[in-house]
Amino acid sequence: MKKFVKSILALTLVLAITFAFAGCKIVILEGKWTATEMTIEAYVYADESQEKVVMETKVDLVNAGAKFVVEVKEDGKGHVVFSLPEDTGFVPVENNLDKDITWSEKDGNITINFGDETLELENNNTGKLVFQQTEESPDKMTKTVVKMTFTRSK
User: Fold this and answer.
1) Is the dihedral angle over the CA atoms 92, 98, 104, 109 positive or is it negative?
2) Residue 148 pLDDT more than 80?
């Protein structure tokens, strides 16, 4: 019995050292994740070459008072809450969202489905989940970049 316990401890130690040297960080997806960074960048260009920026706008939604919390439960379900104070004057974003979600995981990344919307969060092995989306107009005269970083809530 002692030999069995020693073998298990040795195997555990080898795995721990292997993960430490490989730089792996196992991220448990289940739990509450809060957006600690949320920015929207908008660019207007002089022409379709996108070489000359005519107008550039960057909005930090966290500093504007926005809150975005995603709760991921073990059973593939969860809940999402987003709120943005109405007095911010930022029109393109729905001010309040409070919905149940379903989610799935592939290769450590998480896909969140709430109604007609889908949010793909990348697990970059830093203990954070990251979302980034870039949209360009068909004429390439405007571009919008949305970035969000979620960290585990305490």
Assistant:
1) positive
2) yes
Instruction: Tell me the H-state helices in the chain.
Output: 2-22
Q: Give the separation between CA 119 and CA 103, rounded to whole angstroms.
A: 9
Nearest by Cα to 45 from 56, 37, 53, 34: 53
Contact 131, 122 (CB under 8 A): yes
Distance (Å, whole) CA 54 – CA 77: 44
131 — pLDDT class (breaks 50, 70, 90): very high
Distances (CA, A) of 76 to 15, 26, 48, 71, 73: 28, 19, 43, 11, 6
Mean pLDDT in residue range 60-73: 89
Determine the average pLDDT of the residues in 77-84. 89
- Positive/negative CA dihedral, 55, 61, 118, 104: positive
What are the Cα distances from residue 9, in Å, to 13, 16, 44? 6, 10, 60
| Highest-scoring range by mean pLDDT, 37-46, 107-116, 124-133 | 37-46
Q: How many CB atoms lie within 10 A of CB 92?
A: 8
